[in-house]
Amino acid sequence: xxxxTPSKYLINLEKYFANDNPALLKSAKVFHDLDQIxxxxxxxxxxxxxxxxxxWWPIISLIGGNSTAKSRFINSYxxxxxxxxxxxxxxxxxxxxxxxxxxxxxxxxxxALDVDPRYPFYQxxxxxxxxxxxxxxxxxxxxxxxxxNSERLKGKLFIDTPNISAVETxxxxxxxxxxIVENSDLxxxxxxxxxxxxxxxxxxxxxxxLHQDSNKFVYLIDDPLATLNPGKxxxxxxxxxxxxxxxxxxxxxxxxxxxxxxxxNPLDKVDFSEIDERMSNVAYNRSYRVLDSLEKNIREIxxxxxxxxxxxxxxxxxxxxxxxxxxxxxxxxxxxxAEINIGILEFLIDPIIGPILIAILxxxxxxxxxLISRLHAKLIITKLNERQKELHLMENLxxxxxxxxxxxxMLLPINEPAAWNKKMKARLIxxxxxxxxxxxxxxDNFGTYxxxxxxxxxxxxxxxxxxxxxxxx
Length: 473
Known about the structure:
By secondary structure, the chain is an alpha/beta fold.
């Protein structure tokens, strides 16, 4: 087994993000162990890592309707002094907001996000191209990156979505909405989005319904009446709860957006304490999301990747055997005609000539069978490459399949992928157990049953940690 060194991406994750808490720090080691398994199977290259499948940034997405509620909130919350230098209410792109220490903001094209595995839109153009031919080249029409000097953005990513009612209804925009909601740690939904019907609203409601058990949704109500008359706040919240319940949205926190009319005046402080409280938990939500992603990546090998390759092997064997059988049948037909015309049966039953003829037949069929195997393998490899794109897998299914193109595998009825054995399965089980222990250690940040047990557990876990920062980039 060739030892795989940690990828530069994983080392950088350990350097910039994993120090947030011990669970994330140790998860980098588990990700490397998973990379080693996939590398041994031939699923990834030496410089790749499964940790790049999901962004490690804490992600907050904002979804609003036709009003200026969302844009006013962003400008006020991020302390952007002028609307013209901040976020526009008429923006029709999905905008990723990133903290920058410079005073002047900068806007970068969507391609900057598409090629950087640190961000949640890594290789999103491939999905766009699969949905609509040619749209992958138009990623800059849908996506952009904006840098802003704001302390509240530090260590976080905000994703500002286009106004749902104004955005064009097409598969690309629907895919973006689903992708953002699925990968966000906190989703701020402004209730004005529910005030006007649109096809995109139906997609949004369906998407929220699928993920509403994740406790990531906060509904922000921008109502002047609640600001002028605080006593009406509970009544307004109850009204919105009933309205959204009628659409199937039964969970989520409701918050009245504080008055932002004078937010451009630095002397007038806007009370965002309730929203700040939810923001403070985003880092923990990110940690659970990363660990959940790690566990899914481990399960994906046995539940998705191996079955796909195994199906390819079974189809390959079936086609090869049928092709070889057809050739044998053709030879048998020729033998029948030869027997009718010249009589060869006496040669086949001859104790000396018979075995020689059989040996000649085997000498012919063996290279023919191997040649047929390689020809059909090329078709299976093409099919597996297509399946890899359909399933949006980074793992190279065809590469694992090609490990079976050996003399033994082509002649014998071996249907299991090469290198997939009990030892490999045991390694995956061990990684699953480590991941569950990391989730438990993360839970222990909020409370422990026995402090001494928790201390002993932490001491035992230290032996499993390898500091990836020791490796040179």
